[in-house]
Each structure stands twice: as C-alpha cells, then as structure tokens.
Amino acid sequence: MRRAFTMIELIFGIILIAILATVAIPKLMATREDAKAARTLENINTIRKEVWEYAHAKGRVEDNFSKMSDTAKLLEDMELAEEIKEGDKLDLRIKVVRDEDYCVQFELYETTDPTTGNRITELNLSKNENNKGSACKIVQEKAYAVDYPITLLGVSISY
Fold it and tell me: Which of 67, 86, 131, 139 is in the most buried spot, having the most CB atoms within 10 Å?
C-alpha cells in the first residue's frame, strides 16, 4: 500500500495549479477594474442628477459642486475629485483611483443659446485623453449614455 505521492504526480499537480492560476488571475483583475469603473459611473450619474435637481429646485447654481452635490463632497473628501474654478467656468475632475490623473471632468458654465441668444447655464462632461488606465477607459466609453451638455438654467427651463 502506497502512502505518498510520486514525484511525477506532484509535478503534474503543480502544473495543473499553474495553468488554473494563469486563467483565473487575469479574470480576477478584470473584475476589480470593472468594479472601479462601475463605482465611478454611478458617482458620475449621481452628481449629474444632484446638480440638475439643485439647479431646478433653487433656480440657480452655486460656485462650488460640493454645495450642490453630496456625492461631489464625498469624492473630494476621499481625494477622488477636485474642484477647479477658472473664470466663469467651474470644473469637477473625477478620478477612478486616488493616485491616478483624473478620468473625466464636469464643466459648469454659462453660455449663449445659439437659437435664442439668451444666457443659459450648462453642465458638460469631458474626458481626459491622457489617462490610459483600463478602468478609466471603461468609464470614458460608458459615461456618455446621457447627451451632454445638459441645460440647467435658462429660458428653456420653466420654474
């Protein structure tokens, strides 16, 4: 009666485990990237809805995203978002991963409606072409399910 494995049985066992690992590890990494992208997409949609609801409820926008969106404030506290004010334009840069460059940015600005000539406030989403992260690429591909820019305030909006 045998009580131990032979050397060939052990080698085949190790080879089998190595083959399974080469298949499983990339799948697990892809799942992580998908989860990061899904979280970021949900944050983008939530910020868009919160800013739109704020503008329609108050009839104005603020000079700070975190005043209009709890999600924007939370992302800033987690260092996953950064606000930048440039003249009349307010940007909110959103990251997928804390230590990476930003992935997409919201732009809040006033412009002139080309058909009526009236002043309107718009919210736009643009992507950072310099960020090559795999989760960021997923976010950039799927974030445009909503047509941007979105008109928040102006003559086409009734209060």
Answer: 139
Spatial separation of the C-alpha atoms in residues 48 and 146, rounded to whole Å = 10
> In angstroms, rounded to a whole number, what is the distance separating the alpha carbons of residues 135 and 140?
9
What is the per-residue pLDDT across 75-87, written as a single tens digit (0 to 9) for each?
999 999 999 998 8
Residue 83 · residue 74 · CB < 8 Å: no
CA distance 57 to 73: 19
Distance CA 44, CA 13 (A): 47
- 8 Å CB contact between 153 and 59: yes
Predicted TM-score (pTM) of this structure: 0.77
Q: Report the residue count for the chain.
A: 159
